[in-house]
Specification:
This protein is mainly beta and 371 residues long. It has three helices and 31 strands. The strands form eight sheets. Strands 8, 9, 10, 11 and 12 form a five-stranded antiparallel sheet that branches. The protein starts with 5 loop residues before the first strand and ends in a 27-residue tail after the last strand.
C-alpha cells in the first residue's frame, strides 16, 4: 500500500486493473477485484507522482511528476519503457493518453501543455500550448480532435490536436484555479472542477456554462464523467466524493468514508463503479448504482455512515479502521449492500472510547439481540 497521499488513480478499460500515483514518488498497480498488488512498487521518479494514466490497450501506463518528467511503464513487467520524457521546466500536474493510444498530453506548472508521441517518446511538432498560469489538468476529447486544459487563473483552453490552433477563445470558467476537466462521452460538453468549491458544465460550441454544481465546501480537485453519460463524480479537499445527475446537476449521493482530501476519481468503463484516491493513503472502489439508490437525505445524515461502512468479521468498520458496530450473524444478511466494495491501503486498528464513568465489562451486552 502507499505510505503517503494517493494523488491519482486510473482504471484499465477491462476494469481489472487500478493504477495509482503517490507523494512517496511511486506508482502502484493493483488487482481491481482483490485489492492485491499486481506488481512490486514502480520506482524511478525523484519527486512526487501527481498523475497516472493507462493506455487504451492496457499495455502501458504513464506517470507525471514533480521531477519535471513523464515516464512510460510496461504494465506486464513494471519495467520503465525508454527514457524519461523531458521538456517541461516545472512540476507536471497531469498526464493522459489519447483514446487511440498514439499520444500523451501533459500539463505543467510551467504554464504549458505538451503533446508526446508514444512510439518515439518525443514531443510532437504540434505545441507546446500555452496557458496564462500553471496548467493543472488536461484531457483529450473522445475523438481525439481536441485537447482541453485548465489553469490557475480559472480559465479553460481548447486546441485542435492536429494543428495546435485554438478551437475556442479561452473560457473564464471559474474565479479560482481549475484543477480538473473531463469531456462528456459525446464530446459536446466539458465538466470542470475548481478551487472555488464548484464544478461547472460547459457547452463547447456555444462556450457557455449551462450548469453550476454546488455542494462541496472546499476545492474540487477531480471530476469524472461516466461513459454511460448519466453521472458526474467530483472529489474534493473536503474529504467527500459526490455523484451528480449529468443532465440536471441534481445531487445523487455523497460518500463520506475517506478521512482526508479526495485527490482523484475515475469511473470503470462500464460505469458501474467509481474509484477514488485520497490523502488518507487509501484507494476505494464504490458501487455507483447502490450509492445512487440511497435517499439523498440519508447520504447527508451522519447515521447513514453505517450503511457505507465495511463489514469485517462481524463489525461495521469506518474509514479510519474504527469499529463502529457489532452485527450479530443472524442479522448480517439484512444489511444493505456496501457502497464501498474495496479498500486498498487501509491500516487496521481498534479504537476504544471510554466515557467519564470508566470502562465496564460483563455479559449483559449480549442481551441486545435475541438468542
Amino acid at each position: 500500500m502507499h505510505e503517503h497521499a494517493v494523488t491519482s488513480v486510473a482504471v484499465s478499460r477491462d476494469s481489472d486493473i487500478i493504477v495509482s500515483g503517490s507523494t512517496n514518488k511511486s506508482v502502484r498497480i493493483w488487482n481491481a477485484h482483490t485489492g492485491h498488488a499486481a506488481l512490486p512498487t514502480l520506482d524511478g521518479h525523484t519527486g512526487d507522482v501527481f498523475s497516472v494514466s493507462i493506455s487504451p490497450d492496457g499495455s502501458s501506463l504513464a506517470s507525471a511528476s514533480e521531477d519535471h518528467t513523464v515516464r512510460l511503464w510496461d504494465m506486464q513487467s513494471g519495467a520503465v519503457t525508454g527514457k524519461p520524457m523531458r521538456g517541461h521546466f516545472d512540476w507536471i500536474w497531469a498526464v493522459t493518453f489519447s483514446h487511440d493510444g498514439r499520444w500523451l498530453a501533459s500539463a505543467s506548472r510551467d504554464q504549458t501543455v505538451r503533446i508526446w508521441d508514444v512510439t518515439t517518446q518525443q514531443a510532437s511538432v504540434v505545441g507546446p500550448f500555452h496557458c496564462g498560469r500553471s496548467s493543472n489538468t488536461v484531457a483529450f476529447s473522445p475523438d481525439d480532435g481536441l485537447v482541453t486544459a485548465g489553469d490557475n487563473r480559472g480559465f479553460i483552453y481548447l486546441w485542435r490536436t492536429a494543428s495546435g490552433k485554438q478551437a475556442h477563445k479561452p473560457l473564464h470558467a471559474h474565479n479560482r484555479g481549475v484543477w480538473s476537466v473531463a469531456f462528456s462521452p459525446d464530446g459536446t460538453r466539458i465538466v470542470s472542477g475548481s478551487s472555488d468549491h464548484t464544478a461547472r458544465i460547459w457547452e463547447i460550441a456555444a462556450g457557455q456554462c449551462i450548469l453550476v454544481i454546488q455542494g462541496h465546501t472546499d476545492d474540487v480537485r477531480s471530476v469524472a464523467w461516466s461513459l454511460d453519460a448519466r453521472v458526474i463524480a467530483t472529489g474534493s479537499w473536503d474529504a467527500t466524493l459526490r455523484l451528480w445527475d449529468a443532465m440536471t446537476g441534481a445531487p445523487l449521493a455523497t460518500l463520506h468514508e475517506h478521512a482526508k482530501a479526495v485527490r482523484s476519481v475515475a469511473f470503470t468503463n462500464d460505469s458501474r463503479f467509481l474509484v477514488s484516491g485520497s490523502n488518507d493513503t487509501t484507494i476505494r472502489k464504490w458501487d455507483v448504482r447502490v450509492a445512487c439508490q440511497l435517499p439523498w437525505e440519508r447520504c447527508n445524515d451522519p447515521v447513514a455512515a453505517l450503511t457505507s461502512a465495511t463489514l469485517k468479521n462481524g463489525w461495521l468498520v469506518g474509514s479510519s479502521g474504527r469499529l463502529i458496530l457489532w452485527v450479530p450473524a443472524e442479522y448480517r444478511r439484512w444489511l444493505p449492500a456496501n457502497l464501498c466494495t474495496l479498500i486498498i491501503g487501509e491500516k487496521s486498528r481498534v479504537v476504544i472510547s471510554v466515557g467519564e464513568s470508566g470502562l465496564h465489562a460483563g455479559l449483559d451486552w449480549t442481551s441486545c439481540w435475541r438468542v
